[in-house]
Design a protein that fits this description.
alpha/beta; Rossmann fold; Arc Repressor Mutant, subunit A; five-stranded parallel β-sheet; 48% helix; disordered C terminus
Amino acid sequence: MTIRVLIADDQALIRAGFRVLIDSAPDLEVVAEAATGRAAVELARTARADVVVMDIRMPDMDGLEATREICADEDLAGVKVLVVTTFEIDEYVIEALRAGASGFVGKGVEPAELLSAIRTVALGDSLLSARATRGLITTFLAQPTGPRVTTPAQLAVLTEREREVVVLVALGLSNDDIAERLGVSPLTAKTHVNRAMTKLCARDRAQLVVAAYQSGLVSAQNAPLPPTG
């Protein structure tokens, strides 16, 4: 299956470079380009893209607002947003997650890492590392804006195993890591993750992480860092 990609960046040279790289992968295809946030939203609705590679600083409408509009559109429920920007600061990452982005990487990533990131978000996974997740969520909790998305009472819909899995997701573990930790198959681990996302109305793993911290299921102050590597 070919992953259809929309590139949104106001710099033509960046778009051209991304297009050459993405089209070089046999399982990826660039289906449209946008130079503004507003054009990105419109093309997301017409180009049938699976993933939008979104810059933040663009004219007309910035990438964060464009991400918010795409992720709020029920007709675009299957579209994932990967924010790729020069400005790797916590505030942007937090706002991107709040807006509904599935991932956030800097433009300094290696070409292979960008292709991997596109594939990751297309599958509905978050590509935030364990340590990056902890740092971002700590900042998120320290600077709250808006209402809580998930409350402790809402966790009652989860089974004990699903709650356990959500904790491990919030610590940055992959499905394979979770499977190894719990002694189950990766498919079973993924099933638990997907059920938890459905029950908590989380669009993807990134939102599941945020929900875990917002509800108090995991505390940024006492959650142990998982091993890296």
